[in-house]
Amino acid sequence: MVDRLVNSEANSRRIAMVENCFGSSGQPLAEQGRVLVGEGVLTKMCRKKPKSRQFFLFNDILVYGNIVINKKKYNKQHVIPLEEVKLESLKDEGYNRNGWLIRTASKSFAVYAATATEKEEWMAHIEKCIEDLLRKSGKQPPSEHAAVWVPDNEASICMHCKKTQFTVLNRRHHCRKCGSVVCGPCSSKKFLLRGQSDKPLRVCLQCFDELSKERVRPPNQPQTLTNSPSKPVPDTAGSGGDSSADDDDSEDDDERVNTEEKHDEPKFYGDGEKTEESNNHSSKESAK
C-alpha cells in the first residue's frame, strides 16, 4: 500500500496540506519516499487533563499538534521517529477507554480513540509502519523507554513519602525515571538519563538510589546511565506545575474547537484511493 502511494500526486498534496496547517510553527515534512498513511484526532493524556490532539501518521514518523482552529490550524508540532516507538495496549478503566501507550526513549504518553474500532485501526497501521521500517533498516527496536507520567489529578499527596499534601505552595513534580508525582524534597536530586536529555533531570530519591547503584556496575557490564552531582532542583514560580514540564502540556493551548461538532472518523489512505486516482487518470486518457 505505502509503496504504491510514494509517488502519487494525492500523497504530495496531503503532505503539503499538513505543512500548511502548521504554518511557520512546524518543520517541513515533505521528504523523498515519505507517505501520509493516515490522520485523525486522538485524546492525549497530559499531566493536567486529557486534551484533543491532531495526529498524522507517516510511514516513518508520527506527528501531532495542538488544535488551534478545528480542521484548519495546528501548532506546537511534535515529530516522533517511528523506529523509536513501541505501542502498548491499555485496558479500559472507567471513562478511559480505547487507549494505548506510545513509548519512546525520550517521552511516553497515553492516547485514546473514540471507539474500539478506531483504536484497532490506529494501532494496526502504526505497528505495520514500524515493522516495515525496522525490516528495511535492519535495526532492533529500542529496549528502554521513558516513563509515562502519572496525571496530576491522580495524586493528592506525594507518591514517595506518602506525607506531603500538594497545595499552591507544595507543588507537584514528576520523576523522569518512574513518572511518579512527588514533592520537592522527594525529588531534590538530578540524574543524567541519556535517552531523555543531555542534561541531568529531576528524579525521585528512590530512583536516584537505584540509578546510583547501577552506576557502580562491574567494568565488564554495559553502563547506559551516568550519575551527575546531586543538587537541589530549583522550585520555579507557578502554581501546581513542574519546572520542566513539556510545553505540550501547558494550559495556554488557545484551543478553539467546537466540542459539539460531530466526531470525524480517522482517515487512512490506502489502495482504494489509489485505485480511484488511477481510474480518474484513465478517464482523462480516454477523453483525449
From TrEMBL:
Swiss-Prot/TrEMBL GO biological process terms: endosome organization; endosome to lysosome transport
Every PH domain range: 35-131
GO terms for MF: phosphatidylinositol binding; zinc ion binding
Positions with biased composition (Basic and acidic residues): 256-288
Keywords (A to Z) from UniProt: Metal-binding, Zinc, Zinc-finger
GO cellular component: early endosome
Region described as Disordered: spans on this chain: 215-288
Database matches in SUPFAM superfamilies: FYVE/PHD zinc finger, PH domain-like
Compositional bias of kind Acidic residues: 244-255
FYVE-type domain boundaries: 152-212
Name of the protein described by the UniProt record: Pleckstrin homology domain-containing family F member 2 isoform X1
Source species of the chain: Galleria mellonella
